[in-house]
Amino acid sequence: MSQSGSIERSTTRYVPSQQLIANRQVRRLVRRVITGGPLTMAGISAAVASRGEAGRDSEEDEEDDEEEEENLENASEMEGDSRRRTRAEKAAARAQRELLERLQAIPGAVEGLNRVCPSLGALFDSKYGEASVIKGDVAPDVYRRFFFQATEESVLQMATKPALDMLQTFVNQPTYQNATALVEIPAIHELLTHEKHPTNPFPRRTIEVCRWIVDRPEPPKIAEDRAEKPWMETGCCYGLPKIRERPQYPKLKHDINNDVGGKRGAKCSKFYSQYGERRLTGGIMGEGRNDVFSALITRWEKAPKRIIYDFACALGPYCMTREPAFFSNTQFLIDDFHSVGHTKCSPAAFLKTHCNVDPRLSYINSSAGECGNSGLGRIRFFCVYGIACVYAN
Q1: Is residue 323 part of a domain?
Q2: Rounded distance, CA 348 to CA 313, Å?
Q3: Compositional bias of type Acidic residues: which residue ranges (predicted)?
Q4: What is the pTM of this model?
Q5: What is the pLDDT of residues 34-68, one digit of tens each?
Q6: What letters, b where the CB count within 10 A reaches 16 and e where it falls short, cover 92-108?
Q7: How many CB atoms lie within 10 A of CB 172?
């Protein structure tokens, strides 16, 4: 959709470390600690004991095998029991190893977070530190969700510019009223709701973590406008008039290519080969990112407040990498119908996550875009092999 007269963004590049916590090693350690069941000394002791019990059972089985070696009728049954107990022993050993690895990761995670933000490190240490493990304190799930989203690849889904503006208001005046306005950042809203106390103010540590989140983004660079070419040449016909060209991004080497079918990035487990691999006719929107981005940037004077789309997990970073100023107020969310398949994506990208803290969003018919699929299915075959001018006549 780029034309010869398009604006060229020669300074636009892929932005590394778009996560809230930029250091990859620190993110890995934090995820290691918070992933899994409760991490307590009692749990570790139970895992060690279960492994020892499984080992003893295995030794007893070997003795029984020697005594009953001559009994050929029971040989197959004994072998089955031995295999089952061996599997139990391996499972117990694996569980113990995972718990010990999580325990060993705690000092590195706390130290790394302290370098990123001392208050963030203190919050993590108070909920997942060695002292909490020894005392047997289990952190409420709101803290796990917060740290999980802070270490996720799709942190751009966590907060839009208007949400960050409201977070700035809370940091300046940490009142309960300002805290309830943070429904567009579910992880922080749930955290503050949990820490709310009728008489005491919010913990200073939590407020400083919010301040760090507000200060983390860098200001985007501004964009310009341009004019139009006939849709008969482009093969794409939209309901809105074209008000600017799609900019070109020479420093983004994959920008001019069609979306390649396959997994949607390192984290997403869904596929979009329907459009990218089969090269369907432009204008009949499939599961790509370029089509949606191009339509918005060339037709919309102002970006929408909220985009609900199957591919929102990757569409958000795609748009923000190219035109951060234009999309700074836009929230990208995956609809309820398609969110089931996004098993590896951040919950911050799901509409239902936001509905849990903002009931007003539950009135949105997130499946409205699927209503025309049955009609489009009838012309799908012809569109695959057709060209735009055939249908214009």
Answers
A1: yes
A2: 9
A3: 58-79
A4: 0.56
A5: 988 888 777 777 766 665 554 554 444 444 545 54
A6: bbebbebbeebbebbeb
A7: 11
